[in-house]
Design brief:
Number of strands: 9
Shape: globular
Mean pLDDT: 75
Low-confidence stretches: 10-26, 179-184, 192-226
Length: 231
Amino acid sequence: MRGSRCGRGAAALLLAGAVAGLAAAPAQAQEYRYWSFWEGKAGSGGSWTYATEGPATLRPADGAVAGFRFTVSSGSAKAGTPRTVPDFTAICRTTPAKPGSKRIGVALDFGTAADAPAGEQPPPARTACAQVPEDASAGDALAAVAKPLRYDANALLCAIAGYPRSGCAEQVSNGSKDGAQQSPGTSAASGTSPAADSGGSGGPSAGLLGGIAAVVVLGAAGVWQARRRRG
């Protein structure tokens, strides 16, 4: 009887240790390569805020600045901001105002060579002043100054001014910057990177934990039975 209790106790401890160890393993957030969308904030030096809606629905007022940055990140908190100051006056100084239209500054940052897809080099960052109808969206402003644009079937913004040539919000595998699985990037409607911002992690799933736990239990039971036979 004592051996039976010891065997069961050992099995329980082994199971608890294995599950606790897996649960404590650090989760690795998945990174994606995509076009991020930003709103410029006026003020001293200017700043950028990650857009909470997409370029197709956001309708900036005259004098606003919209920013687009090609980046690799696991979410909006880690996404690289456009490296151009959102200065509307500087961007649109040579574009006079016209009745019935509005001017929107557009800042395009094609990212770094490290974030570029294999075989591609990012073009230099640039700005442009889009003069569009008063009810135009940020997407309309972008289309006015940065064609060709490329969207996928889910209205995800894949390319600006033809960059990148292919791919759309790929998952970056093992931090290698090589495209792998596809996942949402900047949506024309939402403006966010849903898969990246959902906090998706590479930690063990419930199914994996359950499978490992079952293996641990079976192994411990086998040890206990062997000891019982010898006793």
